Amino acid sequence: MTQPNTPNSDQIFSSEEITSEPDVKWRDTFHLFCANRAALLGLTFVCLFILVGIFGPIVIPADPFEMVAMPLMNPNGQTLFGSDYLGRDVFVGIIHGARPTMIIAVTATLVTVLIGITIGAIAGFYGGMVDNVLMRITEFFQVLPPLVFAMVIVAVFSSHIVVVILAIAITTWPTEARLTRAEFLKIKENEYVTASRAIGDRNFRIITKIILPNAMPPLMIAITLRVGITVIYEAALSFLGLTDPDVITWGKMIGQSRDFFFEAWWTVTFPGVAILLVVLCIALIGDGLNDAFNPKLRGR
Amino acid sequence: MDDSLEINEDAVLRVMNLSVDFDVKGNNVSILSKVNFGLGLGETLGIVGESGCGKSMTALALLRMVPSPPGKISDGEVLLNNVDLMTLSQKEIKNIRGKEISMIFQEPMTSLNPVFTVGNQLVETILEHKDLSRADALKEAIELLRLVQIPAPEQRIKEYPHQLSGGMRQRIMIAMALVCEPKVLIADEPTTALDVTVQAQIFDLLKEIQAKTQMSIILITHDFGAISEMADRVIVMYAGYKVEEGTLDEIRNSPLHPYTQGLLRSMLVIKPDSSGFKMPLPEIPGSVPDLLNRQPGCPFGPRCSQATVKCRSMPPNFNLGFKRSVKCWLADNGRVE
Question: By C-alpha distance, which of A56, A40, A45 is closest to A99?
């Protein structure tokens, strides 16, 4: 027994199964997630990616823009993944590219989700005219091709990292908004929402403390998948040369070396594999969360 | 007309001409028509009637929680300590909810938020209404659970709603409704989802709390048995009208409206020689009128065995003395409420 028995606690009742962890629901979900090998593999790799992003440039302090070898060298002892057309080390580039990818993916996702959930929650909760107006705005953003829209924003303003993050967020939030709205429409009909209104709760409290926590499972899956999609958007913008030229990213490495693909496959393949692995592993986590949250899919 | 407001002055809650309309595909449908009643201090008022007669809508209208659109409170006053709730701003009415008037619901299974522990929900509610530290709020939450007779509250407080039984969840709903010691508690079919023994426990609990706090209770139910156990006075509702009002004794022993009589006849009376089980229970023929196509005249007329030509026009509420009224031509004594 880890729980100390206070002298006044009732022995008869404390001997029941009550003393076990109260948050069975979340523990169940966690266990189910851990039982999913693919999701666990994804999580492990994403953790590795985060570690590389944080510590990589400290462990390997070499400048990724420095020309250290002959141009287009095969992978060998000196340059692990070979060198590109200017003799820059591809391996060092991948290590240093992890950090900006990670920063942009996480912050852009946060901003996307913040905009999406706020708009979706207000639309779903208040309904009527508010819902109509917000959903028409959402649809306006939805019909614009996100990548083209993001390119225009970056091209018009600047390629500063903040602009890139905002460009990705502004073009992709409708998905989260619509999902949040749908969840809110469903959950607000529950009796516990009426009950909390009957005991005098303010709308703000009902939205944030009553409905939103109940909407979290599908939103968490969407957020996870959103991180992967953001990595791809960032890579695409970099590929097109629209991000900060002083920062090395995987997309940029592919973009700059695309003319040399047939002579030197490694210049394009290794950064491509890095993007693929990160996005795939995030998708695996999302899939694992989906299974863990959805009891109907359990034991599949 | 003067003694129509024969609701005595010490009444906590006075409801006058409360009407609710719904907008159904452009048609105005009257769900609640000019309902009057008063609620005294420490009194339990039972509102009884079948599905769709407007009992729950009365409760929601008192808290201004009629789903809008399509519904709207078209007329009436609800005076709580001489303040008309219908004229308050949204902000003021939210201060009334929970503090002055609280409500508990039919389904204890779905009335608690499934993602938080009951302790968390109670503490949050206490913090929302009172200026206390978290530790003090937790202490008060445990005290409240003790008040509603939950065993080992220190343990239960850490549990999620799905880990508790229906009776316990209803007790917790009651505890949450009692946080601010409201003057009026509206109980909308509080025991319908519970079995009979638990129902008796919940009623005993409500009576005990009422004796301690002088709280007034409005009990809404379709079950005359529940009314007989709890209520001091009874209102019978039919198709959005108050058809009869009286003390429990008057309604049970000398019902005047044919609808009330029919309701009481259709109750199973258990006799010692089990002869009650051999006869089919008399039922009221027909069904509730379609509120979309209301016919003129008494709403109960088409189903009434004692209907006369007079019933083609709407009967007024005939006043038969102190807090006793019947909406039926049979009781015509010339004193219209």
Answer: A56
Query: Residue B77 is inside which H or E element, if any?
Result: strand B71-80
pLDDT computed for residue A64 by the predictor: 77
Q: Coil, strand or helix: which one is B28?
A: strand
Q: What are phi and psi of B193, to 5 degrees?
A: -85, 0
Contact between chains at A191 and B105 (C-beta distance less than 8 A): yes
* Torsions phi, psi for B16 (to 5 deg): -130, 125
For B14, the 3-state DSSP assignment is: strand
The verdict on A4 touching B (C-beta cutoff 8 Å) is: no
Same domain for B229 and B176: no
This prediction has a pTM of: 0.74
pLDDT (tens digit, 9 = 90+) per residue, A93-121? Answer: 888 888 888 899 899 999 999 999 999 99
The full DSSP string for B205-241 is HHHHHHHHH--EEEEEES-HHHHHHH-SEEEEEETTE
**CA separation, residue B40 to residues A120, A213, B224, B243, B328 (Å):** 45, 40, 21, 20, 26
Q: Note whether residue B336 is domain-resident.
A: no
Whether B151 and A10 lie within 8 Å, measured CB to CB? yes
Determine the residue type at B212: K
**Distance of alpha carbon A172 from alpha carbon A218, whole angstroms:** 17
Helix ranges restricted to H, chain B: 55-62, 90-96, 118-129, 134-147, 153-156, 166-177, 196-213, 224-230, 248-253, 258-265
CA angle B142, B189, B173 (to 5 degrees): 15
Reported confidence tier of residue A298, pLDDT bands at 50, 70, 90:
low
B148 HSE (CA, 13 A, CB side): 24
| Residue B22 in domain | yes
Total number of domains in chain B = 2
A211 contacts A194 by C-beta, under 8 angstroms: no
Classify residue B327: in a domain, yes or no.
yes
Q: Are residues B176 and B233 in the same domain?
A: no
Picking from B114, B151, B173, the nearest residue to A214 by CB comes out as B114
Residue B267 lies in a domain: yes
Q: Does domain A25-295 have CATH number 1.10.3720.10?
A: yes
Q: How far is A295 from chain B (nearest CA, A)?
A: 15
Domain span including residue B143: 110-181
Is residue B32 within 8 Å of B22, Cβ to Cβ? Answer: no
Q: Which of A197, A199, A202 is facing B176, going by the closest CB pair?
A: A199
Residue B193 has pLDDT above 60, yes or no: yes
B155·A13 Cβ contact <8 A: yes
- Sort out which chain B residues have CB atoms less than 8 A from A195's CB and list them: 103-105, 111-112, 173, 176
B52 and B130 in a single domain? The answer is no
Q: What is the CATH number of the domain that holds B326?
A: 3.40.50.300
Co-location of B92 and B140 in the same domain: no
Domain shared by B198 and B261, yes or no = yes
